[in-house]
Batch of 4 targets.
Target 1
Amino acid sequence: MDHINTFLHEEDGIGVVEIILILVVLISLVLIFKEQLTSIVNTIFSKITSQSNSV
């Protein structure tokens, strides 16, 4: 029973600071590679559209 209480009161999880840092890194990567990402997405959608017409 003592192990369960220590597990419930343990505070070793991910904190708010870590989550904010991860979000900042992800957003900055998206902003840096925005043109490349939009180009890739447009290419994928054009291939999907052209190949769906043949099916």
Target 2
Amino acid sequence: MYAIIATGGKQYKVAEGDFLNVEKLGVEAGETVTFENVLVVNNGSVQVGNPTISGATVSATVVGNIKGKKVIVYKYKRKTGYHNKNGHRQQYTRVKIDKINA
């Protein structure tokens, strides 16, 4: 059984027991999160939402907040002496999928 959920502007295929890094949710570790934007559920037969499936949810437990790999942003303009170097680490929330309610 799997489901496709939408959170943080992205879509994820999840199954029970999966660990997933999603955009930061602002929830502490150990708390429960419910994803209500369920687009597709497959439990033997495929249900496709229009755009979402009403009444379908995915429950998950927050494992913790993590940071992604560092991305270097370097701006440079030739002949003017201008250069600017910045780094960015995207923040994610790691969740464990507990149950798919369809």
Target 3
Amino acid sequence: MNYTRVNNDYIFSNDKSKLQVKLIHNFLSNESYWAKNIPVDTVEKAIKGSLCYGVYHHEKQIAFARVITDCATFAYLADVFVIERYRGVGVSKQLMNFIMDDCQLKNLRRFMLATKDAHTLYEKYGFKSLSTPERFMEIKPFETYSK
């Protein structure tokens, strides 16, 4: 179910057909700390299997986020970014409001994310450190994508 919200000059949408995959891949591959050198086909596959959210300013995509979820019990927020030129004007907060208002993400048992430096942003939406980190495990076969 696609929906859109307009706020000033910004359009927030969960319509995947609007996503500018080249821009998303470029940011993740070249500017993110979590997905350096990610292949474009991996980005395309991740988009296909996720709920995706884009922010647009005059038709140009300026922000992105995706949520990996079963839409019933669990969700993981990933690949959140705002293009540098648009940072500091509230776009990330508006994007998070848009995501948190998505009816597909209501009443989940657990909603998780990982961040190196945006804890204060996400705390405003109820995220906090793991209450029982000793219960969580991971498989992490490599640190970054090889070139």
Target 4
Amino acid sequence: MTIAACILLGACSGGRKNAPFIKSVYVTTPVKQETEITKNYSGIIEEAHCINLGFKTAGQLSRLWVKEGDYVRQGQLLAELDTVDYQLAVEALQIQYDQLKDEMGRTAQLFQERSISANDYEKATAGLEQLAVQLEANKNKLAYTKLYAPTNGYVNQINFSPAEMVDAGTGVFELLDVSQLEVSLDIPASLYMQRDRFTGFECQTTCGDIYSMRLLSLTPKADSYQLYRMRLGFKEKTGNHLTAGMNAEITIHLSATDTLRTGHALPLSAIFLDHGDTYVWIVSADSTATKRHVTLHHTTSKAQAIVSGVSGNDQVIRAGIRNLQEGEKIQVIASPSETNVGGLL
């Protein structure tokens, strides 16, 4: 029995010595690149215009009909100037015009009777027309003493108080035109250089609403921070809950390049060099390692390589590629489940 036991132990020891060692590896599946890329940036909702409103004539401010923060509608009366002097000027010219008009009637009758020359008649006619123009100009000045809102918006600032003198064209009100809101944001130079690939824009507000946007303008000059100002407009009508100054998240959609359209993403750990060429290890159907040549296009910030030469059905070895040989038998280790950390369940 002792001799038989020794023979059995020797046979087992010899079997273990001849059994081949199989390497264990982790694999991954190449991920085809999307045909569209998105970039997210922060933006600010702004009014379409900020209008400085002023009177078209000078005078003393007599009354303000609105206050800061009020919402006004187009055509609403905002302020008035003192109209006493303008009213007197209109009345004086009206008297002169009526008097000259009566005289012109008599002059026309004398001209028909050939009592005055044609030259005198033309002078009288020109004088009446000139006076009519002056009367109309003074009526316009009288009308200019009232300031109306040119559009819907909010009164953001009032620069004068009643009884102060105001020059013609001086800004009395700062009106925020909110009839059309827009979004402004700054983009880096790297994105500006890809502006020809922009395919669409979306805006998500702090309320959670998502709107489709259109490009209004893109400043071709960078600021001191090497950023380019972009302005976007809303394609559809926005609700009253959106106000100027509100933050928004802007998503910019870009079309992928030809390289990205045909490439697949792999971890950088799956790529290796052999005599200056780029390769990966593929797991064959018989569980052997096969070396395959791939073309490396570029790497991403997520430690991934964009390559061509593989498909989404390939099993690429991502860990354990050191010292592998062509046709070598391997064992694939199953990746642990994200919901079963440590394989406890």
